[in-house]
Amino acid sequence: MNDIDAWVWWLVGAAALGIALVVTAMPELGMLAVGAVVAAVVAGLGFDAVAQVLAFVVVSVALIAVVRPIAARHGRQRPQLATGIDALKGKQAVVLERVDSAGGRIKLAGEVWSARSLDTGRAYEVGQEVDVVDIEGATAIVI
Fold first, then answer.
1. What is the pLDDT of residue 74?
2. At 125, phi and psi to the nearest 5?
3. In this structure, are residues 17 and 63 in contact, taking their beta carbons and an 8 Å threshold?
4. Residue-wise pLDDT tens digits, 82-92
5. Angstrom distance (rounded) from CA 21 to CA 30
6. For the packed helices 27-44 and 6-24, what is the interaxial angle rounded to 10 degrees?
7. Which of 60, 90, 105, 106 is most enclosed, with most CB atoms within 10 A?
8. What is the C-alpha separation between 31 and 25, in angstroms, rounded?
């Protein structure tokens, strides 16, 4: 036991913390593992046990104090999911009745919608696929 250098023990501790991190999914264990790696570097440079423990504590506490609040803030944010008419923008639709700048009908997301062409000089015939670029009221604007 005495012939194994201190830096090896710190790396063993870091590995054990890394395994515990994977098993428990507690990010704090990863931060402690980084602290153990820093302590291993300090031990490898020849510093005494007090400096090693101090490096471990300072790095671990600093990471937990800085990284943990940032991670918690990101964890509370909800993913930005498009719902309602915003979810329909960019979808493809099939023309049911000729669509031009005056109007027409499309099948969009399983429903029949009134539609008009974005380009006033363009018309789309029955069966063509169009892309919805916007929704104005109950009318889909297509290209």
1. 85
2. -90, 165
3. no
4. 888 888 999 99
5. 6
6. 170
7. 106
8. 12
Q: What is the pLDDT of residue 2?
A: 59
Q: Over the chain, what HEC string results?
A: CCCCCHHHHHHHHHHHHHHHHHHHCCHHHHHHHHHHHHHHHHHHCCCCHHHHHHHHHHHHHHHHHHHHHHHHHHHHCCCCCCCCHHHHCCCEEEEEEEEECCEEEEEECCEEEEEEECCCCCCECCCCEEEEEEEECCEEEEC
Given pLDDT bands bounded at 50, 70 and 90, which one contains residue 130?
very high
CA distances from 62 to 21, 26, 33 (A): 18, 17, 13
Question: Does the predicted TM-score (pTM) go above 0.85?
Answer: no
Which residues make Cβ contacts (< 8 Å) with residue 81, sequence separation at least 6? 87
Do residues 32 and 61 lie in contact, with contact meaning Cβ atoms separated by under 8 Å? no
What token pair was written down for 29? 């264990």
Of the candidates 81, 84, 80, the residue with the CA atom closest to the CA atom of residue 137: 84
Residue count of the chain: 143
Looking at residue 84, its amino acid is G
Q: From the CA atom positions of the chain, what is the Rg in Å?
A: 30
